Amino acid sequence: MIKIEIVEGVLDSNGYVAFGSYDRQMDIIQLMSYDAITSSNRSPQMYDQPFDGEHYQGAIAHEITHAVFQHNSRNIEDQLTNATQEYLAHSTQLGILTTESRRRIIDANDVGPWESGDSISDIYMGLNPTGFAVKSYLHLTQLEDLQPFITFLLNNNWFYVSVP
Euclidean distance between the first and final Cα of the chain, in Å? Predict the structure, then answer.
């Protein structure tokens, strides 16, 4: 069972406001309410775009993906990186947006999909969070068969994922 708690205040995530988070140890998703997000920041943004109800749904899908990942990964205790989870969470988040919203985000970023030999890592995600999301979405949606790569991500226990 996935537990979700709606929070009316600010969620602090290592010094910055997070609209949502998934706590692996407690197995609970915490999400700021839509009103808490819009009132905590004069111009909240998601993927460098104005935050709206559609992005709120995306944030919910993102955090649920983390919980589903946790419940299905065999190596979760040994996992050294969040990159594998973030790959799937951002791909899901972008995937539920309307085609128009998603296209706006993709067009605003000058990145292509992850390519063979690339390293999907927390470092890249930290340097270019929106680019990381776009690269992940574009990579996942170009795969003919998603299952082998998702299984690969679920079993990853290293600092990064080297794209096959």
Answer: 33
